[in-house]
Amino acid sequence: MVMEGIPFPKTHNLETLISFLPARLCPNLDPGEQALLTDYATGARYSGWDDISLTEDRWAVALARRVRRFALRLLPKEIARARR
Predict the structure, then answer these.
(1) Cα angle: 5, vertex 8, 36; to 5 degrees
(2) So what's the pLDDT on residue 1?
(3) Are 55 and 63 in contact (CB under 8 A)?
(4) How far apart are CA 1 and CA 7, in angstroms?
(5) What is the Cα gyration radius of the chain?
(6) Residues of 1-38 as b/e, b for ≥16 C-beta within 10 angstroms?
(7) Residue 84's pLDDT is what?
(8) Are 71 and 79 in contact (CB under 8 A)?
(9) pLDDT along the chain (84 residues), means of 10
(10) Cβ neighbours of residue 23 closer than 8 Å, sequence gap 6 or more
C-alpha cells in the first residue's frame, strides 16, 4: 500500500487492510482465511493463546507462503529477487 501511495490505518486486521486495496492488489483470501491470519497476527502474540494442531500449523504456513508469493509478484523485479 505504501508503494501505491494508499493511506491505511495501523491495524493487524487483514479484512480492514484489504478493503483499502484496489482489486488488482488484493490477495485471494476468503473471509475465513483473513480472520484466521488476523487472529495469528494478534492473539498469538500474547499469553493465553491456545496451542494449535500440527495440521492447522501446516495449513497456516502454507497460507502465509501463498500470500507472500502474491506480494512478491507485485514488487519491482529487482526488489522481489532480493527478497527470495
Answers:
(1) 125
(2) 58
(3) no
(4) 7
(5) 14
(6) eeeeeeeeeeeeebeebeeeeeeeeebebeeebbebbb
(7) 61
(8) no
(9) 76 88 88 89 77 88 91 80 66
(10) none
Sort 46 into a burial class: Cβ within 10 Å, 0-12 / 13-18 / 19+: exposed
d(CA 4, CA 48) in angstroms, rounded, equals 37
CA angle 76, 77, 80 (to 5 degrees): 90
Cell numbers for 72, please give them. 512478491
The grid coordinates of residue 58 equal 501446516
- In this prediction the pTM is 0.70
Asked whether 12 and 38 are in contact (CB, 8 A), the reply is yes
In this structure, how many other beta carbons lie within 10 angstroms of the beta carbon of residue 70?
14
The span from the CA of 19 to the CA of 34, in Å, is: 11
Unique residue bearing C-alpha cell 527478497? 83
